[in-house]
Amino acid sequence: MNALKLTDMPIPRFLRRAPFGAAALAALLGAAPLAAQQTPARPASATGVRALSLDEALRMAENASEQVAISRAGITRSRGEQLRARSNRYPQINGTASYTRALASEFEGVGGGGGGQDSTAAPPPRDDCGSFSPNPSLPIEERLDSLEKAVDCAGSANPFAAFGDLPFGRENTWRLGVDISQNLFSGGRIRGLNEVADAGRRTADIELSAQRAQLVLDITQAYYDAVLTDRLVSIAEATLRQAETTLGQTRLARQVGNQPEFELLRAEVTFQNQRPVVIQRRAERDLAYTRLRLLLDLSPDQPLELVTPLNDAAPIPVGRFASDPSRLGDTTTANRAPVRQASEAVRQQEGLLRVARSQRLPQVSLFSQYARVGYPRTGTIPTLDEFRTNWNVGAQMSVPIFTGGRLRGDQLVAQANLSEARARLDQAVTLAQLDTRTAVQQLTAARASWEASAGTVEQAERAYSIAEIRYREGLSTQTELSESRILLQQAQANRAQAARDLQIAQVRVALLPDLPLNTGGAGFGSQQQFQQQPRQMPQQTQPQQQPGGQTSSAFTGAGGQQ
Fold first, then answer.
1. Domain edges within the chain
2. What is the pLDDT of residues 408-421, one digit of tens each?
3. Is domain 6-20+33-48+58-88+184-309+336-529 given the CATH code 3.30.450.150 in the classification?
4. Which of 351, 359, 353 is nearest to 403 (CA)?
5. How far apart are CA 89 and CA 79, in angstroms?
6. The whole model's pTM is what?
7. In Å, how far from its chain's centre is CA 487?
8. Which of 62, 346, 360, 455 has its CA 20 to 30 A from that of 429?
9. What angle do CA 537, 542, 546 make, to 5 degrees?
10. Tens of pLDDT along 508-520?
11. Cα(60)–Cα(247) distance, rounded to whole angstroms?
């Protein structure tokens, strides 16, 4: 079988430019290949047993992960924040429609509108009214008579009758209009809001990449933990069968008088002591399989057969889960996801500080209102010729004069948040350097452990075979046989554990640019302390118009490293 090499994955050239790039490159490229082990992939034979490869498990996990779904919702939310922030740069157009029913009016009975039809009607004209005729050819008596009648009729007429067609006090009023407003100057508020929204979108993208990378690492660890427990169960059961064989041989030798009772008691105790080990290994295997099923959203009772062994020669397909496949294995601190998130958090707080400062500056906007107003003379619904036009354009400026300290308070809060974000960025850089060094050193240690275990299993098997023959021929004691069996069991377990640790260490280093910080046991607190808390964007306000947001607990097998 071909060897598994990390060199199957592309190693970027900036890995060699990292402060500890030489050591990382030597650990990745200078190690011996993984030799084939004795456990080939077995096809599923039992009815209802699902054969599951690591590649299939990785594909299933992304659809079943709640954290990935939450991160995708965060991207959608950040897109909405971007649209909302950018909308302040464009005109705001609103259509309006209203209907008003007048129950009482001050214009009732004065010739305008009013409560009823009679209040707007003029009194009937007099029959004897006439007009003044200053014709000099008429007799003076007729001219005086026409003047007296005209004055008399004018005194009895309604002086407001000419205002009868005006809309004052009409019972029904209809308005259909369009309001338009445009920001002209906001003192930097709109720019700040857009900077906050853009940084939030980049943060959401980084968070999704980090959650996908963490999911790949968790699934890989859970999968190989289950494979490891399978191997440990096989080792424990094989050791139990060996102890049982030794017990049977010792009983037979005791019956023919070739072995004393002490040897028989020793063989029985060795056999009985191995049975709890088998039980414990099986319990650990059940726990590892249960965790894998939960991560894949499978039924807890679904039988699985893992077909990707620890010695699989194919490289683990992690490239498609990386945000940038060219950065696989990159150990540059600035490219770590937590550092990039902390940098975006600083940009967000700088934008919010600009928004806070802009509140002290004038806010200038342009507005226009166009409306068609209908006053029906009769009935409730006006006709087209009863609509009148209103259209006005204006500008508005708003300057804060006294706010009782609110603006100063907003600015102090924004400055404190910016200082905190910068401190968290420095903290993230320090922790990323520590976490990167730890990951590379764990890979180096895992590679060294794998190399050290090479050939040990074959030697231990050979030693046990010789010890078994010597004991059967009466040339050695059971103590020698037991020691050989223990050494064989330990060598097999160490080899399997080393293979598991090496696989996980390789995946972790490959996905390092996108992985969250692993700060457990580093003396810096939990990971949640370093994640940036989401800062709520200030409320979006339109110009005033004129009134009218790792835990990864993996089963470690036989004391393996995380």
1. 6-20+33-48+58-88+184-309+336-529, 125-157
2. 999 999 999 999 99
3. no
4. 359
5. 16
6. 0.71
7. 49
8. 62
9. 155
10. 999 999 999 986 5
11. 47
